[in-house]
From TrEMBL:
One Pfam family this sequence matches: zf-HC2
Domain of life of the organism encoding this protein: Bacteria
Top-level taxonomy: Bacteria, Bacillati, Actinomycetota, Actinomycetes, Mycobacteriales
InterPro entries assigned: Anit_sigma_mycothiol_RsrA (IPR024020), Znf_put (IPR027383)
Protein name per the record: Mycothiol system anti-sigma-R factor
Chain ranges of the Putative zinc-finger domain: 23-56
Species: Williamsia limnetica
Amino acid sequence: MSTGDVAGRGSPEDIDETERLDCSAVIADVWLLLDNECDSHARARLQSHIDTCAPCLEHYGIEQQLKSLVSRKCGGEQAPAGLRERLTLEIRKTVIIRETRG
């Protein structure tokens, strides 16, 4: 059974049932939720699954604590502009490759 893309890019028929979400898809998109990088509908789907799935809730909690720790320890530091630009380009390349192959 296809679960669609959790981050809000799935087809409308995939969006109707939160129980159809696969745990691996939720875990893959946990950082989108933590970083507020998904739309409100995807956020609701992810949160609904996390609220009813103990393993995903545990994973979400671990990632949330990791994000908080990194923020506390490295919060004042910023990457140099050149590094940020290179990372942005690499991320875009990865997304394009993933979309092309997917």
